[in-house]
Amino acid sequence: MAALESPQPAATTTAMRHAFGNVLSVLILVLIGVLAFSIRLFSVIKYESVIHEFDPYFNYRVTQFLSKNGIYEFWNWFDDRTWYPLGRVIGGTVYPGLTLTAGTIWWVLNSLNIPLSVETVCVFTAPVFSAFASWATYLLTKEVKGSGAGLAAAVLLAMVPSYISRSVAGSYDNEAVAIFALIFTFYLYIKTLNTGSLFYATLNALAYFYMVCSWGGYTFIINLIPMHVLLCIVTGRYSPRLYIAYAPLVVLGTLLAALVPVVGFNAVLTSEHFASFLVFIIIHVVALVYYIKGILTPKMFKVAVTLVVSIGMVVCFIVVAILVALVASSPTGGWSGRSLSLLDPTYASKYIPIIASVSEHQPPTWPSYFMDINVLAFLVPAGIIACFSPLSDSSSFVVLYIVMSVYFSGVMVRLMLVLAPAACIMSGIALSQAFDVFTGSIKYQLGGSSNSTDNAEDTNNAPKDDASAGKTDKGEEIVKERSSKKGKKKEREPADKPSVKSKAKKKALVLPLETSIVALLLLIMLGAFYVIHCVWAAAEAYSAPSIVLTSQSRDGLHVFDDFRESYAWLSHNTDVDDKVASWWDYGYQTTAMANRTVIVDNNTWNNTHIATVGTAMSSPEKAAWEIFNSLDVKYVLVVFGGLIGYPSDDINKFLWMVRIGGGVFPHIKEADYLRDGQYRIDSEATPTMLNCLMYKLSYYRFVETDGKGYDRVRRTEIGKKHFKLTHFEEVFTSHHWMVRIYKLKPARNRIRGRAKKLKSKTTSSGWSSKSEKKNPWV
Amino acid sequence: MVKSTTKDARDLFHTLRSAYVATPTNLKIIDLYVCFAVFTALIQVAYMALVGSFPFNSFLSGVLSCIGTAVLAVCLRIQVNKENKEFKNLAPERAFADFVLCNLVLHLVIINFLG
């Protein structure tokens, strides 16, 4: 009787535990989402709800246009307010994913009568999508190793500083949605690989389409997945599920990528995509080989192989030779400049100074790894080992993902962002395995009897002991819930398997009780350190909006709002059609906030145009006036940090102006500006440097501030202190002298009599070889 | 040497043919559809070689639609084939429904891209 009754209560208790486990994991996921959202709100609390930096302003302006004019106008928009006089085709050169996402959210909310402004939606898009990204990480890691690892990876991703740095509230940039799209695409690929369902393959292609819409980094996906397929084939893990996971993705994915105007025909013509086509052909060959092997006897198969190999080799060589000739005929071998600089890190510094000048494109230093992924840096190797036991298709994929992303993050600091999800997945797996082993040992040591229900009660007690020993930090609570949940999950499995077998298995992994408890406590402390570091990084290091600066001093908090002050001055005191010239960093902000036409902006697609502006900044006043006048420029904007010690001002960026200008106009020679190999602005500076426009516009009347002209950034007194401007006049200097705006003086109406004499005389001075032109300034 | 290779080739051809005849009819229909799709793609490539590739998006969408349906049909064949142990829990109706859905998405994209 008792034997008949006990299975039923056991079955309902297992069902209860399953249900409880599911509810608990849903609750944990909701909490993880809230955590991911709230840790990114420091900048809104410390400063205000404002868009940060430079690139987000462009995205914000595009989203404003989209919300005001609708999608057809957006798709066909030709922007004449930037890159004067060339203009820019916005519809064809922008990745539309981010703006369309934010625009859709704004439109949906407004049609539900929730009147959020476009700016609010833009500021908060990134935190919302980071919550989605942590849920996607949970799904991905669950496919690889199970839901315990999934929860661990999700909570790690919610807080990892590298991802926070690009997705704080206000950082309205492509990566905000692209990382979510990346993880979601990988999840669907692994899901298709595990289930072999064509439905998930379709969803995978659609998620890849969203990724292509969002970020140029989609080439990482379309190269990583073929690499993984090749790895599976080479290690003998070919299966029909692999074919279903890969082949529809290539066809649908290429078509969908070609639909996005930015990519267009590059989806089939550039070398970044050739890997996918090559592996597409390879997988078909392999599939055919397996099929024929299945229907032939082994002897006939050997005959077939010798025949095919002899004929096939010849054909293969011919085809490969043609391909190589085609690809080698283009000067870069078909790769774009940015991709080449990833493969060969020294390429950009030799050939493309603009790519080399962006600070995000420099290789990272060792401390930045510990700053950005902290504790995960040494959990990742443990995770890699855990992935090998047992090795499945999905775990080989995450191993390949982390290896590739470590390489690329070593090339460019910006790509540490791609490393972050991989590191979180690996560390989640490692932590989950560690917790499994320790809690299993504790349970085994405390349980000891042959009845699995006794084990269950003991495991209910044991994790709670650990839970009460921990601190009451929020991260701790999640860790506690995780360990108790894993305890319940662990003893769900013995209920399914026969208990003798499970005890035999567990006996091999059992550690002494004290060791396990101490190890568990140490792991929880490790998690605590990670949480403390992440919160500190989010609050102090990555929440600065760059457009508003603050500094603490003895007399309180100083706020430097010079940028917005000057853009507001520009928009109120100049005509709508006036052109403003500045270095390309400030182009996006000028068009978005001051609403004036600019000459060059952060898109940096035209090197010659930027070199023209750089040459103008490096030339003496007269030559600079000529250049700017030919571009119809009315105002010149210069950022100067010498009064307050702001280090990212134009004088510090001057070396790039000289290099980029000198790359196109050979009369600008870098050696003219260097004294002993250094750019100097003090009394030892070269005369070319002291006469160039950038020096004059930065330091005009600077000596009036403290009588000596001491530059706080360069830490010297300036070389030329008292000078007048002949071709420019100062119209605005912001409160802390950070932004200075100058107006071009108009050409003189009356040309003095000397011009007629100059025409008959031969030119005597070397500089004024302009006697053939009427120079109104002489 | 050449004679033995031709004899081997003929033997191989006969073995392949006899093995293929044994496959069920529904799979043979799918194979016929795949061959037709690939053949259409080859005709399009030949036409492009003759006439030139403008407009390129039409050419791409035409060729990729043929290759796409061929690939999806091969996936359907994999899932419906009774000899595949991995898919024995999958009902053939579900496989066909997935096939239809994927084709719908593919052709929606094609029609958009055709220009």
TrEMBL record, chain A:
Its EC number is 2.4.99.18. Residues 577-636 form the STT3/PglB/AglB core domain. Its cofactor is Mg(2+); Mn(2+). Residues 463-499 have a biased composition (Basic and acidic residues). Keywords: Glycosyltransferase, Magnesium, Manganese, Membrane, Metal-binding, Transferase, Transmembrane, Transmembrane helix. It is an enzyme of class 2 (transferase). The keyword Mitochondrion does not apply. Residues 449-500, 753-778 are annotated as: Disordered. InterPro entries: Oligo_trans_STT3, STT3-PglB_core, STT3_N. The keyword NAD does not apply. Belongs to the STT3 family. This is dolichyl-diphosphooligosaccharide--protein glycotransferase.
Automatic annotation (TrEMBL), chain B:
The chain crosses the membrane at residues 30-50, 56-76, 96-114. Pathway: Protein modification; protein glycosylation. Keywords: Apoptosis, Endoplasmic reticulum, Membrane, Transmembrane, Transmembrane helix. Its main location: endoplasmic reticulum. Pfam families: DAD (PF02109). It is found in: Endoplasmic reticulum membrane. It comes from the Eukaryota. The keyword Transmembrane applies. It is a multi-pass membrane protein. PANTHER family: DOLICHYL-DIPHOSPHOOLIGOSACCHARIDE--PROTEIN GLYCOSYLTRANSFERASE SUBUNIT DAD1. Subunit of the oligosaccharyl transferase (OST) complex that catalyzes the initial transfer of a defined glycan (Glc(3)Man(9)GlcNAc(2) in eukaryotes) from the lipid carrier dolichol-pyrophosphate to an asparagine residue within an Asn-X-Ser/Thr consensus motif in nascent polypeptide chains, the first step in protein N-glycosylation. N-glycosylation occurs cotranslationally and the complex associates with the Sec61 complex at the channel-forming translocon complex that mediates protein translocation across the endoplasmic reticulum (ER). All subunits are required for a maximal enzyme activity. Component of the oligosaccharyltransferase (OST) complex. Belongs to the DAD/OST2 family. This is Dolichyl-diphosphooligosaccharide--protein glycosyltransferase subunit DAD1. It comes from Camelina sativa. The gene is LOC104781956.
